[in-house]
Amino acid sequence: MPTFRYKAYSATGSSVAGTVEAESERQAVAQLKGKGLLPREVVEEGGAKDRSGTFSFRRGVSTDELSLFTRRLATLVASSVPLFEAMGSLCEQEESGLLRQTLVRVKERIAEGAALSRALAAEPDIFGESYVSMVAAGEAGGALDAVLERLADFLEEQEQVRSKVTSALIYPLLMVVVGGGVMLFLLTVVIPRIVTIFEDSKAALPLITVILIKVSHFFQGYWWIPLSLAIASVPLYRTAMKRDDMRLKRDSLLLRLPLAGGMVQRLILSRFARVLGLLLSSGVPIMRALEITGEVMVNRVYRTFLRGVMDDVAQGGSLSASLKKSPLFPPLLVHLTGVGEKSGNLEEMLVKAGVAYEREFTARLTRLMGLMEPLMVLAMGLAVGIVVLAVLLPIFELNQLIK
Prior knowledge:
Structural class: mainly alpha
């Protein structure tokens, strides 16, 4: 009989952990509830490993592929097509690749009698814990097609946000690369040829020209220093980010950045509200939904605070009162959460809050990119202008000496 490791909350609200033997995960959960425990994690020993730490709705395949698969499956399930036949049809439609290979294995598990959620849980590299939990809730509530539709909508919306951010960053990055290339060409090729004219004249050079010549000599003779630092910074950064304290400091700094910090916070709040609302509307219990949402939170500052929120809710506190304790959650989100708790439609209010913060993030991103484009052009023009000025000033002085 399989053994399952569990983490749960006791009747007093304290966290407990241990193992239980059961035929299936559902039976293990039932045993724990029979003992008066509230399960928050049940994992088969030797099965899927802990998958926290990254956004867990999709892994290994693109969001577009996963959302398309999810919507197709929802359509087939809503049409009362048997699950095994639906998976077989989807396998035939998929082109050869990682997703097709995964779906073939999922179909084989379903043929052996496994539930869809269990079959998907065996592929943690593709279907994360959030995805599997929502599918399991949909199966238990008899609304699998509706849950799959919500999942597909969410994945498509998240892909749209990612595309907006990527598109907004292309222009600034292109300007930095082009501007850096132009300056490097001027300092290593153009300036050294002009310097010989000034050195032959033996005339006193302006300070700006002297500085430019020294910078040019540095890049000519010691170009390997900045190149080595740039190359070494990548593994150093990755090594530092393996430490939780360094990640916490980085995430805290991101929230304090001018302009960008507010945008990052809106994006985090949108993700928090939409994921939590989506999980609750799919029938996932509040404690399990909070735990999964905490794992979705990439920012360690928010993730750390949500652990305290889980403890408060487990002891009988309200979600809105717990969120109100920290300035990380603005009054609007706290108010909407409180209204949702009182009216009994918490998931709906959370989704509305998520949509509102996503729109605010998009508006801020548009304004910032509109401001950044002329600033990048101005900065590039200023840098080139300084080089031109440093070259022309000695030439003007030489002309005056000749006259």
